[in-house]
Amino acid sequence: MAITIKQISSLSGFSVSTVSKALNDKFDISSATKNTIKTIAEQHNYVPNNYAVSLRGQKSKIIAVILPEVTQNCYNYALCHLQKTAESKDYRILFYQSFGCSIKEENFIKSLNDGSIGGVILIPEGNNSTYNNSIPLEILNIKSSMPLEKIKHKSEESLRSLINSAA
Fold it and tell me: What secondary structure letter does DSSP report for 137?
């Protein structure tokens, strides 16, 4: 299990606030204190909690992708290029399968409105999907009859558009 800031605080003797500031290289913490805290963090393989970071900064580097079924060639091809593009921009992909059910799509979007993600790319099976949500939502309409190069291009553009709207 990963070590927490609170545990580093106990080990170092510094307050949780000081540990957080030291790990985030704040100017009001001395170099000696930063070094002590960072050494303890490294020794215990500290990894920042990205969920907590996104809540504090109101920005998440996680994009949810909702698609009908990953086993269908056009959708797995789109997912592949969404992930490649996301990784090149330091984002991560979390994907959900709706199995063509618009109710599942809607429920996924509702559950993702908790601030844990930066936005949603929805690949609906049909073209008539509209949802009320408080996070950026990009609709990516692709069909199995589309050339793979067009799917790739549309996927990459969709992700770039979503990231730009979430910024």
Answer: E
* DSSP code, position 157: H
- 160 pLDDT more than 90: no
The number of C-alpha atoms within 13 Å of 54 and in the hemisphere containing its C-beta is 18
Q: CA 44, 46, 52 angle in degrees (round to 5)?
A: 150
Please name which of 73, 61, 69, 131 lies closest in space to residue 95, comparing C-alpha atoms: 69
User: What are 80-109's pLDDT values in tens digits?
Assistant: 889 998 888 888 889 999 998 888 888 888
Domain extent, residue 75, equals 59-166
Considering the domain architecture, whether residues 125 and 159 belong to the same structural domain is answered as: yes
Helix, strand, or coil here: 1?
coil
pTM of the shown model = 0.64
